[in-house]
Amino acid sequence: MKNLLKKCVLSFGILMASFWTLKAQNTLILNSNFLSKPDTSWVFTPENYNSAKSYPLVFMLHGWDANYKQWNKIAGLQQYANDYQFVIVCPDGLNDSWYLNSPEVKNSQFESFFIKELYPKILANYSINVSKIFITGLSMGGHGALTIFFKNLDLFLSAGSTSGVLDMRVCAHRFGIPKLLGEKSARNELRYLDFSAISLVKNMIGKTKPFIFDCGTEDFFFPSNQEFYKVCEGLKIPVNYSSSEGKHDNKYWQKTIRLHMDFFKELAK
């Protein structure tokens, strides 16, 4: 009888653990007026999530040719949600949307989807402290995080980029960019610049919202990240910039995402 009781208690404990795991990670699928197909987001809440409290929120944008699962594979986001007591949202950038409103493709308006549909949906369904909302990303997602931040400063406390594509001209003929912005030429080079963080950062002049970015010294985007930092210095824009040994890979991002989360946690105090 005692053994049976122990088994029942153990089974109940496993069942409750499964319940909390399911509760802590949710899948959100949104049909959009701005995209060619529904967008899927993974939402991670702390396992002790309590709707009577309000939580900081961080959006994490994945890289090119990946999806909403990428960050979790790299970092194990449930543990991050638990450790930092943040709600974490990972939308799907639809492989190569570049998180922008394309002037060439009518149903590829990701920024509008993010600002007008996803962002308010998260606030409506989760208990969020609206004064403590952040956005970060890797590679293509670093581009998306900073450009969305620079264009919508009232919606975020801060932002980050790791190994970000901060000047679209650097890879103008690759990664699906010509489809979205048109083939790069002398005539439309200004368009590429207009969609780049290195140009949009001027929106930060006079603002008191520091942001964070980094890039590995062996990364092919390292020179343009260095140039971005020089632009920030020239404009006297407060930034947290770091570079260390590393390539454009998961090993580097496993290290840097914790730097971003520590930075955001400090701002959220």
Compute the CA-based radius of gyration.
Answer: 20 Å
Encode the helix/strand succession as letters.
HEEEHHEHEHEHHHEHEH
Largest sheet: 8 strands, mixed
**Weakly predicted, low-confidence segments:** 1-22
CATH secondary-structure class: Alpha Beta
Q: Which of globular, elongated, flat, extended, rod-shaped describes the shape?
A: globular
E-strand count: 8
CATH topology: Rossmann fold
Second rung of CATH, namely the architecture: 3-Layer(aba) Sandwich
Indicate the mean pLDDT: 92
N-C termini distance: 51 Å
Domain module count: 1
Strand content: 15-25%
Helix-strand layout with pairing:
Layout lengths: L1 H23 E6 L8 E6 L10 E7 L8 H6 L1 H8 L2 E4 L19 H16 L2 E10 L2 H12 L6 E5 L14 H5 L7 H6 L2 H4 L10 E6 L5 H13 L4 E6 L5 H18 L2
Parallel strand pairs: 3-4, 3-5, 5-6, 6-7, 7-8
Antiparallel strand pairs: 1-2, 2-4
Task: Give your account of this protein's structure.
The chain has 10 helices and 8 strands. It is of the alpha/beta class. The chain has one domain (25-267): 3-Layer(aba) Sandwich (Rossmann fold), CATH 3.40.50.1820. Helix 5 links the parallel strand 5 and strand 6 (158-162). The longest helix has 23 residues, at 2-24. The radius of gyration is 20 Å and the shape is globular. The relative contact order is 0.13. Residues 1-22 have low confidence and may be disordered.
